[in-house]
Specification:
mainly alpha, single chain
Length: 77
């Protein structure tokens, strides 16, 4: 009984158009899955690492925010 329940649950999860028995289906009738383009990933791999520049920028912004916070705290109420 448990196997039947699992089979029915897994059958409901199959995408629309999926053959009932893909193992014994005609391979010519099966659709090839589309692969997303990889051009952006390959292009980004050739770029220099921007981590060092971003870290310096974040440190500078953090320093500016700390100085603004200190100036606000120093103001009389």
């Amino acid at each position: 009984m448990r196997k039947i329940i699992v089979f029915i649950a897994l059958s409901a999860c199959a995408p629309e158009g999926f053959p009932d028995d893909p193992v014994f289906s005609d391979p010519a009738g099966l659709e090839m899955p589309r692969i997303a383009p990889l051009d952006q990933i390959v292009d980004a791999a050739g770029q220099p690492n921007a981590t060092e520049g971003a870290e310096a920028e974040l440190q500078a912004r953090g320093g500016a925010l700390r100085s603004r916070a200190d100036a606000l705290r120093a103001q009389p109420r």
